[in-house]
Amino acid sequence: MRIPGKIIAVAATTTLLGSLSVGWAQAQPAADYPAAEYRLEIYYVQIRDISHRVDPEEYCAEIYGIVDVQDYVSAAGYTFFRAERDEAVEVCEPNRPEREGTQSGLLRAWAYGTTEITKKFTGDKAKDTPFTFEIDLWDRDPVGGDDHLMQKTVSVWPPKPGVKPPSISDDPTDPTVYVEYAIINKTKKDEEERARQQFEKSRQRGEAYGNCRRAGGTDEECQKAAASG
Q1: Contact 66, 82 (CB under 8 A)
Q2: Which backbone phi and psi does 158 adopt, to 5 degrees?
Q3: Could you say which DSSP state residue 18 is in?
Q4: Which of 83, 109, 120 is nearest to 179 (CA)?
């Protein structure tokens, strides 16, 4: 099986006008996305409509190839799936033959504990480099010949707040292979978690202080009790 070579994507510069500040200060370009550390996670890879598109009259496909994500600057990355031809993984439509209609089989992760990649972004595409997907998937068919389902190198950037990152598939209008993933603002999530933990500590201290006062403790005693808890 040929594993595609690595291709370094060259980022294009995008300039967006921001709003003017008070006074005579010059307008500053708006960030392409918030500066932060981002985490990319692949949730699953779908092989759609196997019994009609991939292996007619059969409910399972034998998938081999690679799905990985790279950061070529730091050489970081992770492999979601990798299998040689003689290690092909069976992917089946889940409810055949009992149920009709279009169904999808799920390609499971190749290894445990390698489910994400993190990377810091400045918010400026002229300075940053994207996450890059390398996808090369085949269906093994000893009788009719192997089918090449998808081969793509796709670069993706953190989305603007509230915007879902673009989907990845072999065909955007009628896909056979579909990759479900997310790019998460890890800095924001970490800050939210720290704030939640701080709120919980404050709540527990307030509760301890109130219980102490109701039990007849002095303000000084209860302040110490709450702090020690």
Answers
A1: yes
A2: -60, 140
A3: -
A4: 109
